Amino acid sequence: MATTRLARPPHHQHVIVMRHGHRLDSIDRSWPLTAPRPWDPPLAEAGWARALEVAEQLPTQLGFPIHRVVVSPFRRSVDTALGLIGGRPAPDKDPNAVTGTGGGIDPSKVKISIEYGLGELFNDKTFRHAPPSPENHGDWGFNIPEVEALVPLDTLDRAVKPVFNELPHWGETEAKARDRYLHTIRSLANSYPSENLLLVTHGEAVKVALLTHLEEAARFEIKVNYCGYIQLRRPVVQSSEALEAGEFELLTSHGQSGVNCLPRTDM
């Protein structure tokens, strides 16, 4: 008589895809003139305030815990992630000493890692400033250990295997970026099927994730505000032999999470 292998009851995995907060060069137009890396601005004060505000609202709005935060290597995204866990590095102090309201995502219950696949759309239409030789990845100055040093040690997860180990090729098209973002989101979700993920990235990635799962997507123009996000959910069934995951569905209500779907006027 054959033995029946019972699967565990299905559960839902949630993935939040969020844009970073207000970048400094959008507030202080003179900042790039003296910055050593003008293509990688940190958050402005308004960005920190917005990240902390969103963090206070998230637990109630979502109704489920966040287990893992995965972040684009750009400084504005890393800063946003720090704001979302309830604080920011104190000036000229150990990054593990954070200041804040104490609200937001509990840093003792999440892990943070850096992912190139969540980085900005990589072309001259996206970047206001770029290195003299942007096709040379070394010119961008990204050093993952240095980026990781901004993250409190008790939340940093260095053991994560990245989806992408380097920046995209310069001149990336929207189609290639779309494939990169979707592959990254799916790969991260598959790597941690029992966890709810918060992906802190850029506006284009949020648009891609939304339009991919939005019915009649061609009818809409998408506007993603700073710290705007969408919420995806899928059923996951874990048996003793395999993992079975369903397709993602879009749960975001238009406008309530800083993402607006506006009817196109050119149709």
Automatic annotation (TrEMBL):
This is Uncharacterized protein. It holds the Pfam family His_Phos_1. PANTHER family: UBIQUITIN-ASSOCIATED AND SH3 DOMAIN-CONTAINING BA-RELATED (PTHR16469). It comes from Eucalyptus globulus. Residues 85-104 are annotated as: Disordered. Transmembrane segments: none annotated. CDD domains: HP_PGM_like (cd07067).
